[in-house]
Amino acid sequence: MCLFGIAPTGEKELVAIEAILHHKTRRQNAIMEKSNLGVTHTEDLPIEADEKYDINEITDKAKQGAEAEHNLAPLQALRLYPKAIFWCLVVSACVIMEGYDTNLLGNFYAYPEFAKKYGKFNEASGNYQLTAPWQAGLGNASGVGSFFGTLLNGYLVMKFGHVRVILASLVALSAFIFIVFFAPNTKVLLVGELLCGLPWGIFATTAPAYASEVLPMTLRVYLTSWTNMCFIIGQLISAGIMAGLVNNTTEWSYRVPFAIQWFWPVVLFPIIWFAPDSPWHLVRQGRHAEAKESLRKLRSNPSEEELQESLNLIIYTNNLEEQLEVGTSYWDCFKGFELRRTEIACVVFSGQVLSGLNFAYNSTYFFQQVGLTTTQTYHLNVGGNGMALFGTIVSWILVMPYVGRRTAYVTGMFVMSIILIIIGGLNAKTSDHNIGMAQAVLTLIWTFVFQLSAGQLGWALPAELGSTRLRQKTVCLARNAYAIASIVAGVLQPYFMNPTEWNLKGYTGFVWGGTAFITFVWAYFRLPESKDRTYEELDILFARRVPARKFASYKIDAFQSDALP
């Protein structure tokens, strides 16, 4: 099969005809769109059925667009793409709600009034406790809902686009919050968390995919990983609210935190209503005139030539993937070299859980079990969120601009495994209050390292490494791999820690230290470097089956006629 736009002499006409036939069904719609948008020249539509159109022009402008991406510095990109950055920040803000609730419910187990309402008095511990099965059930309910919401999102975005799907999800979430707010018992609370998980799964997978499609290469890792920052912001807000209400002796100590979740849909819905859809999505739908207008809305005073270069690069990459026989279904994610991309995306994302997330990240329940007071516990919880925020900022300033994605992920995973093993080793002296505090401080250090590595890149890499035609579905599969790992960890973790079950306390660090080390070994051999690579370059690197450790140094020109294997 010939590479679109760079076929050898004698085949150009055939490729041009194939391109025209491929878009024939869009011709009338494109003409109508051109008229509605005030376009007066057919040249403004780059690939519609215009017999006089030079098929090589799309390759030339695409190459110019790719060169412009490589030469674009981050500060320059900030000046050229302020609108795109704004819309990415707004769309990603939806994820704040999931981070808020994830931190909320997990830390309610040690919350006196919540435990009194939904738990039972435990003679051994001398206080109210939720049983381990209910801790596992409630902790994983939203994860189960998120799993199905994520799968559904892969289909919805393909049909309706990112913006419409987000708006509908905000409406649904507003209704589901009523269930958790008024829940009279654990059963109703579980149902409410399950339903809330559906839109959360949509938010968490739409935000990084949208960011990767509206920003240039130099900014994409910052705004795809910004999704992780939104989680941290949500967790920090919930930690602060819980620390302020922990001594309240009424039911409002836990109902008020639930009610605050209504704030986000009310604020975000009217703003996102005006957000432009992804130009990549529009090109995949054959709506090139709309894609060009979307690019215009995402940039600051762009020239027609710049818009055309960017649009042609998108069209070129899409057609390149068609030549590589990349489809658009979930099944296509498991065919040929796409299977490798899916594997990497899924393991990288689930690596967040395997690195010890359920144990070491803001674990107030762990702090309580090693003997810290309630006040110390919730103050450490706030400190942990502050450490996460600090780690993210350090990552953006000192790590991402200078260190490769692969290097950061591999190093971070190794360091986290060592920290967890040390926590396990210290458990031999848990009767000493100072040892318990040392273990708690080590979890804060772990949190910092996590945000320098897997915490950021677990979000960024799936959106970056998947092919453009399968990006949304690759992100969805990666997110669900994370969800499955999180559900398993969420079931096991209460049993590890609960004093009425296995009561491992700090010894749990040995378990998660082992899984973190296994992930480190996998990453060393399987995780490729994607820093400074455009999407068409990544397509060809994967198609050529280049080994992971050679991605960074491999020389390639994606616009040469022999670029494909």
UniProtKB/TrEMBL annotation:
Domain Major facilitator superfamily (MFS) profile stretches: 87-531
Q: Name the Gene Ontology molecular function terms of this record.
A: carbohydrate:proton symporter activity
Name the chain's protein.
Major facilitator superfamily (MFS) profile domain-containing protein
Q: What InterPro entries does the annotation carry? A: MFS_dom, MFS_sugar_transport-like, MFS_Sugar_Transporters, MFS_trans_sf, Sugar/inositol_transpt, Sugar_transporter_CS
Keyword entries, A-Z:
Membrane, Transmembrane, Transmembrane helix, Transport
Q: Which residues cross the membrane?
A: 165-183, 189-211, 223-246, 258-275, 382-400, 407-428, 440-461, 481-497, 509-525
Lineage top rank: taxon: Eukaryota
Q: Where is it found, in Gene Ontology cellular component terms?
A: membrane
Q: How does it sit in the membrane?
A: Multi-pass membrane protein
Q: Where in the cell is it found?
A: Membrane
Q: Which family does it belong to?
A: Belongs to the major facilitator superfamily. Sugar transporter (TC 2.A.1.1) family.
Q: Which Gene3D superfamilies match?
A: MFS general substrate transporter like domains
